Amino acid sequence: MPIYDGDGFPDVFVANDNRPNILFHNLGGKRFEEVGLPAGVAYNDEGNVLAGMSADFRDLNNDGLPDIWHTAILSETFPLYINRGNGLFLSAGQESGLANPTRPMSG
């Protein structure tokens, strides 16, 4: 189960279709709060919503924190959100060099 903030409770990322993405932060197993915008995962590097196809939590930079790789459709970038800790993500699709090569793909 993905736990983006290390508190032991599973959290949920939703790659939406043409709406801002959602990140549900688990508040102790019985309640969730939506934190996509303040966490930095609601939009892509360009500030746009995407046709979200899929997403996965993985520690891509080996820092012990799960990052989010998000796929989209043709002509849209596939965002990469690097977990910075403290509930914040850095949108790093352009910086990583992965954004433009994914434009001609559907995920």
Shape: globular
Strand content: 25-35%
Report, as a whole number of angstroms, the end-to-end distance. Answer: 22 Å
Mean pLDDT: 91
Helix percent reads 10-25%
Which sequence of strands runs across the widest sheet? 4-5-6-7
Strand and helix map with partners:
Blueprint: E1 12-14, E2 22-26, E3 32-34, H1 36-39, E4 54-58, E5 67-71, E6 80-85, E7 88-91, H2 93-96, H3 99-102
Antiparallel strand pairs: 1-2, 2-3, 4-5, 5-6, 6-7
Structure commentary:
The chain has 107 residues and is mainly β. It is built from 3 helices and 7 strands; from the N terminus they run βββαββββαα. The strands form 2 sheets. A 4-stranded antiparallel beta sheet has the order 4-5-6-7. A 3-stranded antiparallel beta sheet has the order 1-2-3. It is globular, with a radius of gyration of 13 Å. The protein starts with 11 loop residues before the first strand and ends in a 5-residue tail after the last helix.
